[in-house]
Structure formats: structure tokens, C-alpha cells
Amino acid sequence: MTTTLTPTRTAVAAEARAVVKTYGHGAVEVRALDGADLRIPAGQLTAVMGPSGSGKSTLMHVLAGLDTADAGQVLLGETDLTTLDEEARTLLRRTRIGFVFQSFNLVPSLTAEENIALPLTLAGRKPDPTWLARLVDVVGLADRLTHRPSELSGGQQQRVAVARALIARPDIVFADEPTGNLDSRAGDAVLGFLRHAARELGQTVVMVTHDPSAAAYADRVVFLADGRVVDELPAPTRAAVLATMAGLIAAGE
After folding, report:
1. Does residue 3 have a pLDDT over 90?
2. In this structure, are residues 231 and 248 in contact, taking their beta carbons and an 8 Å threshold?
3. How many CB atoms lie within 10 A of CB 51?
4. In what order do the strands lie in the sheet with 79-80?
5. What is the 8-class DSSP label of residue 3?
6. Are strands 30-41 and 228-234 parallel, antiparallel or unpaired?
7. What is the pLDDT of residue 8?
């Protein structure tokens, strides 16, 4: 049976259902996810937080098709990732998912514009000029398009990375600690754009972060502990995020 990879826009962009993920065996076995359930609404910025070892990065990797679940179900739209082989997951990541990493991951020999267009270039396609111009305008890089990464600040490099993640109009963008290598001013600019991408461009974004200030930019924050989603905050504030995290850490001691 062939599973379709046709993008499907639904009210729920992605979902984890009772997902289990274990690393190691026997005495060194670690259950990173222990029946995790999570629904990601389309067109929103969702932040994922939790104490160290709570499973937040593992959950993101499973939702993004970078890792496989041992049990449970993972859906992207109506596509069940747990039924796909590695080749099909690779195709899905290329065509329907965008990524933003803490370390930027730009190609040093390419200009900013070439880095932004890279996902489409690899697919043998050219960017939509109107969409490219809109992204460049929103991230404020119009005067930096011919610069290479070494000629850009950290904040500018990360804005290039965010534009690159959006250029193919993916179903969902996963951002892993996107401000971890940035100062507060540059970080705020990147976070502001991610929020703009969700609220104004209709993009679904999932951001893993340990920073309560970063999480406060989200439409919703979900909290993990011991491999499960244990709480969530709609319309979060930094103070509310800090209080929730403090409670989770205290409960785990």
C-alpha cells in the first residue's frame, strides 16, 4: 500500500498520540517519551518546554520525522509518519517541513539569497519571486542578499535561516532553540518574525526552548515532564511560564 505525501491543511497541523520512544536497553534504557500526546494547531506558534531530560527535543524529532516512534502514532496533517519508510520520511521532510536550528546551518560559500532559496534549488525549483520578496522584506534582509554568512551578524544569519525554512511554504516549521546563540536584541527580532509568520503568514511553527522570555512570544506553551505533556499555557507571559517551570522542577525533585 502506498501512503500519499500530498500536503493536507487541517485545523490540526501535527499530532502525537500515545508516543513512546526508548533509547538503550536493559540497565541503561531511557524512556525519552512515555505515552506523549500533543496536538499542534495550524497557523499558531507553539512553544515546547520542560526540565532537562523531559523529552522535548525527542518529541520534536519524532514529530518532524527525524526519528521514529517505538509505539503510538505521529500524524502530519492526515499522513501517518509511523507507516512511512526512511525514503518516504526523507521526501516528506524535504517537501512539507521546514527547520530552524540553533547553529544556523548556512552554507558558507552561498550568498544570503542563495541560502534562502536552497531548499527549492535542491528540489530543482525556483522560488516564487513575490513570496521571496515578501520574506526578505519581513526579515529585513533586502540590503544583505549578496552577503555570505561570514559577512552577516548572528541575528542576520538566523533570519536567513528562518526565511530559508519558510521559502517552500511548508506545512510546519520546527525551530530548535532558535535564539540560543543570539544576544537578547537579535533573539527578539527572530522571535518577532516567527510570531509574525504564524499570525500574519498563517505558518505553523513549533519551537523548542528553555527560555521563558522566548516562550512568551508563543500563542501557547506546552510543558513536558518524564516524557509526557503535563501542562499548557494559552497566551503565555514570562511570569506564568517561570511559575509553571518552577512547579515542574520542584515536583521532580
Report:
1. no
2. yes
3. 18
4. 30-41, 12-23, 71-76, 79-80
5. P
6. unpaired
7. 44
Q: Which set of grid coordinates corresponds to residue 187? A: 533573539
Query: What is the Cα–Cα distance from 62 to 81, expressed in whole angstroms?
Result: 9
- 46 close to 220: Cβ distance less than 8 angstroms: yes
Alpha helices (H) along the chain: 56-63, 86-96, 112-122, 129-139, 154-166, 184-199, 212-215, 238-252
Strands 30-41 vs 79-80: parallel, antiparallel or unpaired: unpaired
Q: Within 10 Å of residue 40's Cβ, how many Cβ atoms? A: 22
| Grid coordinates belonging to 14 | 501535527
204: left (phi over 0), alpha (psi -120 to 50) or beta: beta
pLDDT digits (tens, 9 = 90+) for 49-81: 998 889 999 999 999 999 999 999 999 999 999
Matching residue, cell 552577503: 147
Is 228 within 8 Å of 34 (Cβ atoms)? yes
When pLDDT is averaged across residues 150-178 and rounded to a whole number, the result is 94
Place of cell 527572530: 190
What does the alpha-carbon distance between residue 245 and residue 210 come to, in Å, rounded to a whole number? 10
Task: Catalogue all structural domains in the chain, each as residue range(s) with its CATH number.
Answer: 40-68+84-252 (3.40.50.300)
List pLDDT tens digits, range 135-161.
998 888 999 999 999 999 999 999 999
- How many helices and strands (H and E) does the chain possess? 8, 10
Give pLDDT, residue 4: 44
